[in-house]
Write a structure and sequence with these properties.
The longest helix has 24 residues, at about 210-230. A 6-stranded parallel sheet has the order 1-8-5-4-2-3, sandwiched between helices. The chain has a two-stranded antiparallel ribbon with strand order 6-7. The chain has helices spanning about 15-20, 20-25, 40, 45-55, 70-85, 95-110, 180-200, 210-230, 235-240, 240-260, 265-275, 280-285, 290-295, 300-310, 315-325, 330-345, 345-350, 360; strands at about 10, 30-35, 60, 90-95, 130-135, 145-150, 155-160, 165-170. Helix 5 (about 70-85) crosses helix 6 and helix 7 (about 180-200) runs antiparallel to helix 8. The two termini are about 35 Å apart. It is an alpha/beta fold. Helix content is about 50%, strand content about 10%.
């Protein structure tokens, strides 16, 4: 058994300013990688700018990261990074900017290479990365993974390199400008990380401690999330500061869980649904969790997981998710393509502790 968690993590209000010296110590000039809107709305981008200015550290902003970032966007940012002579990268936002930041750091550090290196098994250097999460979902601030959209294959896949951020600066205040849909979808993504890590071929008593902690945090908030969905207003109108803090803690803990196990079948099944139907990633993953639990062979492990979440049965869990997320209708053609893709994906199948056949997998669609 092994535990390895190299990222230096801080979680508190005003986290970026409080730890600006550690952020600035990563280099002489930063590339701030973010999307077009959310980091401006929640104040995170301004906080990072101000922190670097206070330390006299130069920076350049790349704010063109789309949802589910593409290889093309990474290469566009790489050109700016080389031109500006940046020597560290700061991802600011949800999973998309944070994942993109890692891939950009790799590409800027290797200016003589093309995008082919993203999916090659080679030893390459990488610029230091810091992450400032503004959603509570991917846990990318503590994981080594970077998921990119590959348009040529009409899907998403993690790059071949494991790039741990040097520094994660977590401030739950940034969650307060999110929409209900974004907050719930990202939370379900974190929940999927916890479940897929717990029921995983790589799970052991050490790394399951992360999943158990995260599942207990979810249990403490699940009724609040449902009320937030039913109310339909802004999350900050219905959720307390304590819940926002727990959401960020759950997300980071879930990231630490999958760092040691990676994800499993629900994540693999979600990618074509996101690419072809535009279903947000967390929602796309969530619709496969009931089937994953229902057909998992070690029923005692499933019962233990449900107890941590305070659900009496898989049926109760399914009913909860249906109200929280809503249902998604997947066409027969897409579902067939999805199942065939997973059955050919050894990376996901090997994380499932038992033999999976297509007939059982087809039953995951409800």
């Amino acid at each position: 058994m092994q535990i390895y968690m190299p990222t230096n993590v801080y979680s508190e209000n005003n986290c970026v300013m409080n730890h600006r010296k550690e952020l600035a110590a990563l280099g002489n000039k930063a590339m701030l990688v973010t999307g077009r809107h959310s980091s401006q709305a929640n104040g995170s981008l301004e906080d990072v700018k101000h922190a670097l200015q206070e330390e006299g550290t130069a920076y350049v902003v790349f704010d063109k990261v789309e949802e589910n970032p593409s290889i093309e966007t990474v290469m566009q940012a790489r050109e700016l990074g080389i031109q500006e002579h940046v020597d560290f990268v700061v991802g600011i936002g949800g999973g998309s900017p944070m994942d993109a930041a890692k891939a950009i750091a790799l590409m800027v550090a290797n200016p003589g290479e093309d995008e082919g290196i993203l999916y090659e098994a080679r030893e390459l250097g990488c610029l230091p990365v810091a992450e400032v999460p503004t959603t509570a979902g991917t846990g990318s601030e503590v994981t080594p993974y970077a998921i990119l959209t590959i348009h040529a294959r009409r899907t998403k896949q993690s790059i071949s390199y494991r790039i741990y951020p040097e520094l994660a600066l977590i401030d739950s205040r940034y969650l307060k400008t999110e929409s209900v849909d974004t907050l719930i979808n990202t939370t379900v993504d974190a929940l999927a990380h916890l479940i897929e890590s717990y029921l995983n071929a790589n799970a052991n008593s050490y790394n399951r401690m992360y999943s158990e902690k995260g599942l207990r945090l979810f249990a403490e908030m699940k009724d609040d999330l449902l009320q937030c969905r039913r109310f339909g207003g802004e999350p900050k109108q219905t959720l307390s500061d304590d819940v926002f803090d727990k959401l960020m803690q759950m997300s980071a803990t879930a990231g630490m869980a999958i760092t040691h196990t990676s994800t499993s079948l629900p994540h693999g099944l979600s990618y074509p649904v996101t690419y072809e139907m535009g279903v947000p990633h967390g929602k796309a993953v969530g619709i496969f969790l009931p089937g994953f639990l229902q057909f998992y062979q070690a029923k005692e492990d499933v019962r233990a997981l449900l107890r941590e979440m305070c659900f009496a049965s898989v049926e109760d869990f399914t009913e909860y998710l249906d109200e929280l997320l809503g249902k998604v209708e997947i066409s027969d053609d897409l579902w067939k393509k999805d199942v065939e893709m997973i059955m050919g994906n050894q990376a996901k199948l090997k994380n499932y502790p038992y033999v999976m056949d297509a007939e059982t997998l087809y039953k995951f669609r409800r």
